[in-house]
Design goal:
The chain has 100 residues and is an alpha+beta fold.
C-alpha cells in the first residue's frame, strides 16, 4: 500500500492510497508511486503551500513474500519526489514463511 499523508500529527490525517495490487499486476513500486503522485498537481507551489500548513510526508509500505528482494525507483520518479520537498519513508514487511 502506498500513501501520501498530509497532516499535523496531533490533529488529523489524510492518507490517500492506491489499492494493494500484486507486483506483477502493478508493474512495481515505481509505477505505483508515479500513479499516486499523478493525482496531485506537479507544481512546486502546490507542495510549498501544503508544507506551510501541514507536516507532509510520502510513505511507502512494501510487503515482501520472500527475503532479500529489492526494488528501484527511476531517476524521474526520484526527481518528482524531490520537487515535492517532502521526506520519503519506507516501511518494509516480510509476509512470507520464516525460514529460521
Amino acid at each position: 500500500m502506498l500513501t501520501i499523508s498530509t497532516r499535523r500529527w496531533s490533529l488529523a490525517g489524510w492518507p490517500p492510497s492506491l489499492p494493494t495490487p500484486t507486483a506483477a499486476a502493478s508493474g512495481g513500486p515505481d509505477e505505483l508511486v508515479t500513479s499516486l503522485l499523478a493525482r496531485f498537481p506537479a507544481e512546486r507551489e502546490f507542495w510549498d503551500g501544503l508544507r506551510n500548513d501541514y507536516d507532509v510526508r510520502l510513505g511507502v509500505a512494501v510487503f515482501q513474500e520472500s527475503w532479500n528482494r529489492g526494488f528501484e525507483l527511476r531517476a524521474g520518479t526520484v526527481a518528482l519526489i524531490s520537487r515535492m520537498g517532502v521526506p520519503l519513508g519506507f516501511d518494509i514487511y516480510f509476509d512470507g514463511e520464516d525460514s529460521g
